[in-house]
Write a sequence for this structure.
C-alpha cells in the first residue's frame, strides 16, 4: 500500500469510528436521517456495530499494509453507503443529510475502495 492509500484508509476508518461513537447517543442530524429513511429505531444499534467493525477492518488492512484486506472492507463500506443512497431515494428523503452526509460518505468510500482495489489487483 502507498502512503496516500494508508492515510485515506485511516481517514475513512476514523470517520466511521466517529460516526459509530456519535450514534451511541445520536445527535439530531443522525436521528433525522435514520427516521427520514424509515429505518426502524429498534435496529439503530446494528449500524453502530457495522460501522465499528468496518473501521476496525480498515485499520487492520492499513496496519498490515495489506491492500486486499483494505479493498475488501472498503468495498463493503461503499456497498453500505450505496444502499443508504437507495434508502434515501426510496423514502424521498433528499434534504441536506442526503446531499452532505450520505453522498459525501459515498464519495469518500468510493475513493478509498478504488485506490485499495487498484493496489490489491496489482
Amino acid at each position: 500500500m502507498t502512503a496516500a492509500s494508508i492515510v485515506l484508509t485511516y481517514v475513512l476508518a476514523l470517520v466511521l469510528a466517529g460516526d459509530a461513537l456519535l450514534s451511541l447517543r445520536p445527535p439530531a442530524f443522525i436521528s433525522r436521517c435514520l427516521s427520514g429513511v424509515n429505518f426502524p429505531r429498534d435496529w439503530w444499534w446494528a449500524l453502530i456495530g457495522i460501522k465499528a467493525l468496518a473501521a476496525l477492518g480498515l485499520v487492520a488492512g492499513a496496519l498490515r499494509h495489506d491492500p486486499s484486506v483494505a479493498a475488501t472492507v472498503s468495498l463493503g463500506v461503499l456497498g453500505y453507503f450505496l444502499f443508504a443512497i437507495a434508502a434515501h431515494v426510496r423514502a424521498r428523503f433528499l434534504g441536506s443529510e442526503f446531499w452532505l452526509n450520505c453522498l459525501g460518505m459515498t464519495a469518500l468510500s468510493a475513493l478509498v475502495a478504488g485506490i485499495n482495489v487498484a493496489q490489491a489487483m496489482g
Q: What stands out?
A: The radius of gyration is 14 Å. The first helix runs from residue 3 to 24.
